[in-house]
Amino acid sequence: MSEHLDPSVQALLREVMEDEYPLLLDTFLSDSEARLHALRQAHDARDAEALRRAAHSFKGSCSNMGAPRLTELCRLLEHQARTGELTPVSVLLAQAEQEFAIIRTLIESERQRHP
Amino acid sequence: MQSTLCILIAEDSPADRMLLATIVGRQGYRVLTAGNGLEAIMMFARERPHMVLMDALMPVMDGFEAARRIKQMAGEELVPIIFLTSLTENEALVQCLEVGGDDFIAKPYNSVILDAKIKAMDRLRRLQATVLEQRDLIARHNEHLLNEQRVAKAVFDKVAHSGCLNAPNIRYMQSPYALFNGDLMLAAFKPSGGMHVLLGDFTGHGLPAAIGAMPLAEVFYGMTAKGYSLAEILREMNAKLKRILPVGVFCCAVMLNLSFQRRVVEVWNGGLPDGYLRRGSSGERIPLRSRHLPLGILDASCFDDRYEIYPMETGDRIFLLSDGVLEACNLAGDCFGEGRLLEVFALNRQPDLLFSEIQQALSAFRGEAQDDVSLMEVHLMEEGQLPHSPLIFSDSGQNASLDWSVSFEFRAETLKRFNPLPYLLQLLLEVEELRIQGSVLYTVLAELYSNALEHGVMGLDSSLKRDAQGFAEYYRERRTRLANLCDGYVRFHLDLRPEGKGGRLSIRVEDSGPGFDVQRMLERHALAEHLSGRGLKLVRQLADRCSWAPDGRGVCVEFSWPARHNPADRPSAQE
Amino acid sequence: MAITSQPSADGQELTIFIQGRFDFGAHQEFRDAYERVNVTPKRYVVDLQGATYLDSSALGMLLLLRDHAGGERAQIRLIHCSPDVRKILSISNFEQLFHIA
């Protein structure tokens, strides 16, 4: 579990957010869906700049939420977009979507414990 | 009490925004949030937060543009902007700084570092606010001070310019703000048509230096107009400054009494650098040394009013200077000094150009504006070339009586220390008809008085004054004899009568001397144009009638005037 | 600018040493040099050996010292005057008020 969602970060967030911790989790999930959607659109439109920006922003929130693998995938996507060579992006994007599916499950179970 | 620090968070990711707002809010700050750059600048305009945490990449308007606009709106006030970024490229970091970013913080957020940065930026912000506040305060004070100086200068100019600094025999160089360097120049016509000139330099700078100028000018002008002598005016100026100025503030000054009729100059210098009397004929340069303490130091009882007397001819020039001339410095820190000044004197070929040559030498030496230098040139002019300034009276004189006589006898103790002329003049000038010839009256009274005192009472021989050396000798002897005077008198009989519709004034002066051979004296005066002869000749020219008592111990002069006109077509002084 | 003062062993005389420019900037320091001492000297000495410059404000300060030291009855010597300093003092005829050496 720790390679997907860092438990020490989650502990810190719980401490900082107190009652609003569940709201933060909900917000992250819906925001991430929007980001992934934007990444997919940019990829389909072959828009490297839009791809780079979306990857950069997503990377920031992933790091804040303590999702190291997803953060790393965003970083690679951002890097790739900057080179302009979009071929490897399809693979990276698929990996990111897969990783997010795992994180969603983990967060939803976390959400169960903090209604 | 300082209001709670208000922080604007501009971040497009809702989760990051929520997290950051919570962290900052928990730290006790007031938080505003915006989801993009445009919202951020609108929020800034409305709420004026103290600090901004700004994400770089945002939709609608990015953080760079928003930062630039917020810095613009903030103006001189420091609104710190901390960029929230995981930007790794140097180029983007540079861009953050270029638009005015003050710091960065990387994601993921660390609340300890975040709080430390906010606190550091707040200190910087307060420091800037304090600096601006103090700058504005200083600017306001300065403006206030300059305004006070303008008012003081305007008031002072009114007093200072009631004199005759612009007379054709005076040239001067002085900064318009000389008053605040403590430098002062005064010149005024005497009732007799001669002139008093003063160059003064108060200790220090600014208002404290300017404060003594006003009473000094008032004494100078007031007493000069009333016919007081150089020594009397100096005594009064010294006493007044001593009375009103704090210890340690004083006025270095040189004062001249130029007499165009008698062709002499009296000089008193207390504390200013050597002035110079430069002979027009020979080019000889006589230093006018400081022989006294400055004005305002000594008690009235210790003050020394002794002055030097020099004969003066047309073409002779007097130069007076403040120490600013000698202390003028060049970029290397060297002073202009007496040596360089005397060199300019030595190189001069055309006396008329000397004044401007000194000015040029000074500006060539300093290479900048001369704002603390006062320099003055005064020369002698032929009597009549200078306008007689009309005397100014505060009353209309309509009510004065025209039919009276009065006699005075001034005896030795009085003659030693009292100048009766201003009192006699005041008395006569109560009569409106006499006012238009006030300066003529004064000249005649002064000549008759000095004749009676010097030749009659003290028995001085005027033929001594034939040359410059004898001249000095004469005045030394005069001083000695006056100091030792124990008997003798001078009498004035003034008699005023209506005559037809006009009137007549007769002045008879007698003295205790042995008398003189009237006929021989008149013949000699008719022949010679030497230094001694001018006085009596002048009296005969100015009075309507002039006669001597047969024993040579008294003289009588008369002034007549025609019927009184309407005030509207009153005859002017030139008639 | 550094102004220091040193009372004599018997406390009868206070010597004030002037270093550098003696002008208005030295005003407070100069006053402190004779006001903030625990002795009440009969005589004062102003040592001008280290003075590089002296202006009319300095002359004013000397008058303040003279006033402090009893005015007419003050006993003040100005010592180690350079030719320049001596000239400034003599233009103002301060030798009438101070012993200059």
From TrEMBL, chain A:
<dbReference type="Pfam" id="PF01627">
    <property type="entry name" value="Hpt"/>
</dbReference>
<feature type="domain" description="HPt">
    <location>
        <begin position="17"/>
        <end position="110"/>
    </location>
</feature>
<keyword id="KW-0597">Phosphoprotein</keyword>
<protein>
    <submittedName>
        <fullName>Histidine-containing phosphotransfer protein</fullName>
    </submittedName>
</protein>
<dbReference type="InterPro" id="IPR008207">
    <property type="entry name" value="Sig_transdc_His_kin_Hpt_dom"/>
</dbReference>
<dbReference type="InterPro" id="IPR036641">
    <property type="entry name" value="HPT_dom_sf"/>
</dbReference>
<dbReference type="GO" id="GO:0000160">
    <property type="term" value="P:phosphorelay signal transduction system"/>
</dbReference>
<keyword id="KW-0902">Two-component regulatory system</keyword>
<feature type="modified residue" description="Phosphohistidine">
    <location>
        <position position="56"/>
    </location>
</feature>
<dbReference type="GO" id="GO:0004672">
    <property type="term" value="F:protein kinase activity"/>
</dbReference>
Automatic annotation (TrEMBL), chain B:
<dbReference type="InterPro" id="IPR036890">
    <property type="entry name" value="HATPase_C_sf"/>
</dbReference>
<dbReference type="InterPro" id="IPR011006">
    <property type="entry name" value="CheY-like_superfamily"/>
</dbReference>
<dbReference type="GO" id="GO:0000160">
    <property type="term" value="P:phosphorelay signal transduction system"/>
</dbReference>
<feature type="domain" description="Response regulatory">
    <location>
        <begin position="6"/>
        <end position="122"/>
    </location>
</feature>
<dbReference type="InterPro" id="IPR001932">
    <property type="entry name" value="PPM-type_phosphatase-like_dom"/>
</dbReference>
<dbReference type="InterPro" id="IPR001789">
    <property type="entry name" value="Sig_transdc_resp-reg_receiver"/>
</dbReference>
<dbReference type="InterPro" id="IPR036457">
    <property type="entry name" value="PPM-type-like_dom_sf"/>
</dbReference>
<dbReference type="Pfam" id="PF13581">
    <property type="entry name" value="HATPase_c_2"/>
</dbReference>
<keyword id="KW-0597">Phosphoprotein</keyword>
<dbReference type="InterPro" id="IPR003594">
    <property type="entry name" value="HATPase_dom"/>
</dbReference>
<dbReference type="InterPro" id="IPR052016">
    <property type="entry name" value="Bact_Sigma-Reg"/>
</dbReference>
<protein>
    <submittedName>
        <fullName>Response regulator</fullName>
    </submittedName>
</protein>
<feature type="modified residue" description="4-aspartylphosphate">
    <location>
        <position position="55"/>
    </location>
</feature>
<dbReference type="Pfam" id="PF07228">
    <property type="entry name" value="SpoIIE"/>
</dbReference>
<keyword id="KW-0378">Hydrolase</keyword>
TrEMBL record, chain C:
<feature type="domain" description="STAS">
    <location>
        <begin position="14"/>
        <end position="101"/>
    </location>
</feature>
<dbReference type="InterPro" id="IPR036513">
    <property type="entry name" value="STAS_dom_sf"/>
</dbReference>
<dbReference type="InterPro" id="IPR002645">
    <property type="entry name" value="STAS_dom"/>
</dbReference>
<protein>
    <submittedName>
        <fullName>STAS domain-containing protein</fullName>
    </submittedName>
</protein>
<dbReference type="Pfam" id="PF01740">
    <property type="entry name" value="STAS"/>
</dbReference>
